[in-house]
């Protein structure tokens, strides 16, 4: 309609600024993923100490402090990378960004090593007992999100190394970093539940 | 009153002048357009069309169920066939009829109502549609898949809420549970994608001047619905993942023989399931909020309260789920808690009913078809809400749960409530989408036949519930006091079927022969009526600037615009 | 097949109409009282709001030509009215909450008297296994006195405490005139109770979808005078008389020769299977197949030929008996009094 643009009221000189679609979209994604994680967390808590047979968490779990530090640390290195991107310091952005990728990859690699040990040495599989089911599903859900995050981070790395990343992509990079922060901080919750709390519930046996 | 040029009015299937030189109308072009489109309007119509298609199939299943139950000890359907029918009827109606139709309405209308050109993520929009379409296909493909149990296909037969441990490998051999799980899982991903799209569109793409407080209530309501979707659908996905792990990798989330809990499935399912039914009914409210004011010729009574009521309903609905589980043996404290929260949610819902009545009061009510359906909604939703309150009284629920009373209650909500507003919405917005009015005579036949049939079928079910008839029974004995009510219930199906027949006939006939509608056939006030019927691909020639909740009222009444009063 | 029943006694009238508004047991009466108040409140709300709807529709419908210029007064809302129709529903809600929580407490936290009868009900696809506790056994130690299937007997005017368990999937125990329903959940022990105040044969149904024959998992609760109940208990604990006719004796042999004993139990014989219903006093029961058919010779014969004829999907297989074997087994089964 032509005339809908004609002012029929005193023009309001309020600037019309709406949140960016990217930020809104990423926030929604984080909300929905949080809802998904919550159910696995609830299942884990519900079943803590309820395994009918071993191996039990107190026997076989070793908290992965270094790998966790790496993952949480990567939240800080990614912030450093963004800092440099804002100041157009491409070289330092690449350095810190790649460090982030490496820290994430180390975490994932360690998870793979830990699972190998749990399955083959400690004989805990998803079907061994209730602890196995809740452990592998919760930690596995998290690990799958780390994988997705690493893929996103790698795409940015390659784009940047090919000199195709510019100032206009700042928000895209920021959204990927938000996702990465989400993955990292979910790990804090998972780590606390799985490695700190659950060995204290249920049957206490010496480490295998 | 002139409403701008009509030179842009074209049938929706035509490519708008933005793509000159393409021929209109050939079948290949139509199919190509539908498969590749990212236009929210085309996707919206595809959602509604597919939803109506599945509605007819699931409705036929319901008719067959009612034939089997018309008389005691009937042999029209074998028990296994019956059990598959009620499972598929429920699952289909919720997931591939209700959800797509409401998303179809949102998809079509929200961008236009906020003065935008399309949704925030058009390609993700198409992705959402095709995930839903795939899920519908997968669900019904189960009928043709494999030998299943008793060599009769693998359609799910575990009830639409698929309680464990009936769904475990031990009790569900074959793949019927898996079809249910995978179809709904894929559909869920599509729903979440569409919901995210709706939120981002509403938050970030509103036209200049349209603050949150000036959005049409339709848009507000769908914003709330979308938040419910992104919060409530992941729990369903989560417990379905757990079910698959149980069935295929030997996990024991719900396997009671190995330390799992059957109740946990119920908790997780209903944490999804209860918000889901609010996700289904809130769009009905959204449609009411647009139609009732226009046909009462007054603004909605109490806009801010209506927004607040939506928010309260959504928030409280996240905390009522275990009212579906009053009979599982929770403690008295647990039962009391959920009874209380369930009754609390009745308060904002009741307020909405009063606000609609307040809108009609003092107005000049035009009893056209959209409004007729809305008035029946008010009557039927009132009944539904009151039977809901009865079910919220946990001891009353200990008698009524899993009986035909519950079946009556939720059909009053979903048919008497949601479906009637869907009909209202279609009569109201069909002219906008297709440029032609739906026929009035066929519409009245549809309305009266369907309304009568609906009440004849579902009202007696309250009574058979009071008399102890459980649900999901493929047959029943004579002499239990259930015979008469079941027979009456079945007779109503005929009227509903005829009503739907006239409705579909109307949709098809009016496409070619309906009276031309023009831009604004109802003299309404929101932005969709400010563009042509059907709108061009790009929705508006110039993006609008608004100053109140009813921009077209301001234009039509420059001496008395809304922005003076808001 | 019509699931009706062989004769019942005059002083134990059949009560097939499971009308929750005709309660004949204490918890059902408590539910009834709360329900009636709720129903009345809802009926009043219904009449008032429907009245309002009819009033506004009739009074404010537009008459005559539609005159676009004459719109009615544009009212945007009213805080006072909003307050009124918020406060009144809140008050009604509070009243209902009070009634509800009180009734929940009354029923769920009801104390168990010392002379209560204790029963354990275990749900199966698609029949009910019932154990009676030995009188005098410690409350938290279960000792089974005797078992039965698909039919519960209780004394009138006494509290019967029922523990509910499941051997397979979810079921639900519902005898509407005696109490609301409670689910049977594998891995959990649920509790319900009845205190019937009238004798009769009450009809119960499974009320949680449990598979193919969910519709045919019926239950009879026979409420008797104390004297009749005591006599019944004594009869249940007495093994059935040995068969006397040639056909019945041959039937007993058939019973042992086939794998019947793997699933079924008959007290006083080596048959001790627990997968299927206890058959010790089968001949005294009102129905067979959890209510699928009258308990008479014809039904038994059909069942023994192929149970799936009467109850498709039943877990008891076709035992592939010859006609003669069927006649003999039926004769034997009818001696299990």
Please, could you describe this protein's structure?
- The complex is a heterotrimer of chains A (208), B (566) and C (337).
- Chain A has 208 residues and is mainly α.
- Chain A is 69% helix and 0% strand.
- Chain A has one domain (21-47, 69-200): Four Helix Bundle (Hemerythrin (Met), subunit A), CATH 1.20.120.
- Chain A has helices spanning 21-46, 57-60, 65-86, 90-121, 130-161, 170-197.
- Chain A starts with 20 loop residues before the first helix and ends in an 11-residue tail after the last helix.
- Residues 1-9 of chain A have low confidence and may be disordered.
- In chain B, 67% of the residues are buried.
- The radius of gyration of chain C is 27 Å and the shape is elongated.
- Chains in contact: A-B, B-C.
- At the A-B interface, helix 1 and helix 5 of A face helix 5, helix 6, helix 7 and helix 15 of B.
Counting structural domains of chain A, the number is 1
Backbone shape of chain A: elongated
Name of the CATH class of the domain at 246-333 in chain C: Mainly Beta
CATH topology of chain A: Four Helix Bundle (Hemerythrin (Met), subunit A)
Low-pLDDT runs of 5+ residues of chain A are 1-9
The SSE string of chain A, one letter per element, is HHHHHH
- What composes the largest sheet of chain C? 6 strands, mixed
Q: Kindly report the CATH topology of the domain at 246-333 in chain C.
A: Immunoglobulin-like
Secondary structural class of chain A: mainly alpha
CATH superfamily of chain A: Cytochrome c oxidase, subunit III, four-helix bundle
The N- to C-terminal Cα distance of chain C equals 24 Å
How many distinct beta strands of chain C? 13
Shape of chain C: elongated
Helix content of chain A: 55-70%
Tell me what the CATH architecture of chain A is.
Answer: Up-down Bundle
| Radius of gyration from the alpha-carbon trace of chain C, in angstroms | 27 Å
N-C termini distance of chain A: 76 Å
Approximate strand percentage of chain C: 15-25%
Average pLDDT of chain C: 92
Count of distinct strands of chain A: 0
The number of helical segments of chain A is 6
């Amino acid at each position: 309609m032509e005339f809908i643009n004609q002012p029929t009221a005193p023009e309001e000189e309020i600037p019309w600024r709406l949140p960016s679609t990217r930020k809104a979209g990423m926030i929604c994604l984080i909300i929905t993923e949080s809802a998904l994680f919550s159910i696995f967390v609830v299942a884990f808590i519900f079943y803590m100490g309820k395994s009918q047979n071993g191996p039990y968490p107190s026997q076989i779990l070793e908290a992965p402090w270094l790998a966790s530090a790496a993952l949480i640390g990567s939240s800080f290195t990614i912030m450093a990378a963004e800092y440099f991107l804002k100041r157009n310091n491409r070289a330092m952005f690449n350095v810190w960004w790649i460090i982030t990728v490496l820290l994430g990859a180390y975490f994932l690699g360690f998870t793979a090593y830990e699972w190998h040990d749990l399955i083959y040495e400690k004989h805990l599989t998803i079907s061994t007992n209730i602890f196995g089911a809740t452990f592998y599903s919760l930690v596995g859900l998290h690990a799958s999100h780390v994988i997705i995050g690493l893929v996103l981070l790698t795409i940015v790395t390659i784009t940047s190394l090919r000199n195709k990343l510019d100032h206009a992509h700042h928000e895209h990079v920021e959204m990927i970093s938000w996702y990465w922060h989400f993955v990292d901080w979910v790990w804090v919750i998972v780590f606390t539940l799985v490695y700190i709390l659950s060995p204290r519930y249920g049957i206490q046996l010496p480490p295998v | 009153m002139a409403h701008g040029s009509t030179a842009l009015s074209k049938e929706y299937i035509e490519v708008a002048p933005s793509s000159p030189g393409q021929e209109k109308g050939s079948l290949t072009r139509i199919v190509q357009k539908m498969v590749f489109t990212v236009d929210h309007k085309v996707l919206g119509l595809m959602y509604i069309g597919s939803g109506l298609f599945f509605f007819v199939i699931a409705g036929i299943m319901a008719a067959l169920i009612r034939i089997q139950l018309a008389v005691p000890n009937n042999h029209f359907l074998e028990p296994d066939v019956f059990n598959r029918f009620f499972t598929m009827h429920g699952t289909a109606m919720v997931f591939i009829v209700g959800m797509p139709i409401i998303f179809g309405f949102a998809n079509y209308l929200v961008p236009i109502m906020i003065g935008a050109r399309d949704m925030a993520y058009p390609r993700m929009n198409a992705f959402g549609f095709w995930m839903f379409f795939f899920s519908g296909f997968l669900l019904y493909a189960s009928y043709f898949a494999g030998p299943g149990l008793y060599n009769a296909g693998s359609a799910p037969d575990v009830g639409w809420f698929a309680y464990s441990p009936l769904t475990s490998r031990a009790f569900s051999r074959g793949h019927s549970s898996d079809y249910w799980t995978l179809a709904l899982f894929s559909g869920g991903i599509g729903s979440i994608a569409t919901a995210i799209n709706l939120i981002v569109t509403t938050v970030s793409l509103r036209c200049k001047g349209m603050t949150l407080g000036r959005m049409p209530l339709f848009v507000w309501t769908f914003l709330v619905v979308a938040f419910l979707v992104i919060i409530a659908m992941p729990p369903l996905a989560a417990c379905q993942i757990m079910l698959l792990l149980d069935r295929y990798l030997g996990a024991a989330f719900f396997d009671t023989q190995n330390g799992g809990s059957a109740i946990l499935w119920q908790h997780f399912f209903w944490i999804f399931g209860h918000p889901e039914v609010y996700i289904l009914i809130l769009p009905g409210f959204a449609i009411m909020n647009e139609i009732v004011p226009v046909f009462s010729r007054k603004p909605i009574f109490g806009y801010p309260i209506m927004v607040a009521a939506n928010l309260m309903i959504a928030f409280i609905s996240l905390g009522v789920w275990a009212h579906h589980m009053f009979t599982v043996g929770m403690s008295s404290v647990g039962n009391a808690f959920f009874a209380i929260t369930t009754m609390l949610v009745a308060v904002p819902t009741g307020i909405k009913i009063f606000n609609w009545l307040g809108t009609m009061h003092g107005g000049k009510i035009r009893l056209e078809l959209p409004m007729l359906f809305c008035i029946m909604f008010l009557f039927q939703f009132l009944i539904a809400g009151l039977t809901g309150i009865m079910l919220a009284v946990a001891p009353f629920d200990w008698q009524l749960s899993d009986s035909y009373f519950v079946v009556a209650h939720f059909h009053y909500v979903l048919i008497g409530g949601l479906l009637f507003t869907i009909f209202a919405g279609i009569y109201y917005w069909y002219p906008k989408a297709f440029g032609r009015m739906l026929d009035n005579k066929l519409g009245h036949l549809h309305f009266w036949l369907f309304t009568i049939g609906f009440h004849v079928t579902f009202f007696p079910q309250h009574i058979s519930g009071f008399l102890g008839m459980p649900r999901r029974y493929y047959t029943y004995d004579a002499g239990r006091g259930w015979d008469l009510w079941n027979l009456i219930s079945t007779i109503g199906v005929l009227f509903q079927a005829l009503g739907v027949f006239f409705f579909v006939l109307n949709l098809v006939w009016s496409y070619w022969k309906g009276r031309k509608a023009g831009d604004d056939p109802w003299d309404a006030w929101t932005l969709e009526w400010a563009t042509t019927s059907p709108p061009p691909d790009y929705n508006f020639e110039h993006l609008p600037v608004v100053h109140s909740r009813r921009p077209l009222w301001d234009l039509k009444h420059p001496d008395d615009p809304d922005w003076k009063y808001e | 097949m019509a699931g009706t029943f062989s004769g019942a006694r005059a002083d134990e009238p059949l009560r097939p109409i499971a009308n929750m508004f005709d309660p004949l047991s204490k918890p059902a009466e408590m539910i009834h009282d709360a329900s009636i108040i709720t129903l009345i409140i809802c009926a009043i709300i219904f009449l008032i709001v429907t009245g309002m709807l009819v009033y506004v529709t009739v009074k404010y419908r537009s008459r005559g030509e539609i005159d676009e210029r004459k719109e009615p007064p544009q009212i945007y809302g009213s805080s006072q009215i909003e307050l009124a129709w918020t406060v009144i529903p809140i008050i009604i809600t509070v009243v209902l909450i009070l009634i509800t929580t009180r009734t929940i407490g009354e029923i769920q936290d009801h104390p168990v008297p010392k002379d209560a009868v204790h029963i354990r009900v275990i749900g199966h696809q698609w029949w009910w296994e019932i154990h009676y506790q030995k009188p005098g056994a410690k409350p938290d130690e279960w000792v089974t006195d005797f078992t039965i299937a698909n039919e519960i007997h209780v004394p009138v005017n006494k509290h019967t405490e029922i523990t509910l368990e499941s051997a397979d999937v979810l079921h639900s125990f519902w005898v509407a005139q005696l109490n609301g329903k409670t689910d049977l959940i594998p891995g959990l022990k649920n509790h319900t109770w009845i205190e019937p105040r009238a004798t009769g044969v009450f009809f119960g149904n499974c009320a949680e979808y449990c598979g193919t024959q969910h519709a045919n998992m019926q239950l009879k609760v026979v409420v008797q005078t104390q004297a009749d109940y005591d006599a019944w208990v004594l009869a249940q604990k007495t093994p059935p008389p040995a068969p006397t006719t040639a056909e019945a004796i041959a039937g007993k042999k058939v019973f042992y020769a086939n794998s019947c004993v793997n699933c079924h139990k008959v007290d006083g014989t080596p048959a001790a299977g627990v997968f299927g219903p206890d058959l010790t006093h089968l001949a005294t029961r009102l129905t067979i197949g959890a209510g699928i058919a009258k308990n008479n010779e014809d039904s038994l014969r059909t069942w023994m030929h192929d149970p799936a004829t009467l109850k498709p999907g039943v877990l008891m297989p076709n035992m592939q008996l010859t006609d003669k074997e069927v006649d003999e087994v039926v004769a034997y089964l009818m001696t299990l009094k």
